[in-house]
Design goal:
Lipocalin; 2 domains; 3-stranded antiparallel β-sheet; 1 helix; 7 strands; 23% helix
């Protein structure tokens, strides 16, 4: 899918890959149980957690790359963070917006002071 964007949903122990433009389902992988699934895309890895376990999937195919039962930590919700998660780009964009807003304020202040 060259021009479409893919979104990933976590629901009832499964991960679903969908075309964001058409809503067409691309693949579905059942992981475990029927609980909430937390999903995070990080480059070429799609991480999914459910029932206290973590799975690493190929985002293009849904094929499992690895799985860790996180033994000894129970069955609660698992949150995910990483050094270079996909959201880094949104942080860069937010910082650029803040910089441009500051430039506009500075420009406006110097115009007001001159007049």
């Amino acid at each position: 899918m060259p021009h479409s964007k893919i979104i990933y949903l976590g629901i009832k122990g499964s991960v679903i890959s969908m075309d964001s433009e058409s809503g067409r389902q691309i693949w579905t992988v059942h992981l475990k149980g029927s609980d909430f699934v937390n999903v995070v895309l990080d480059g070429d890895n799609l991480y999914a957690t459910t029932q206290g376990e973590i799975f690493c999937l190929d985002p293009k195919t849904g094929e499992g790359r690895w799985h860790n039962e996180l033994k000894g930590f129970g069955f609660g919700l698992v949150s995910i963070a990483g050094e270079c998660m996909a959201s880094d780009s949104s942080l860069i964009q937010a910082e650029e917006k803040r910089r441009l807003d500051q430039q506009a304020r500075d420009s406006s202040s110097s115009t007001s002071a001159a007049g």
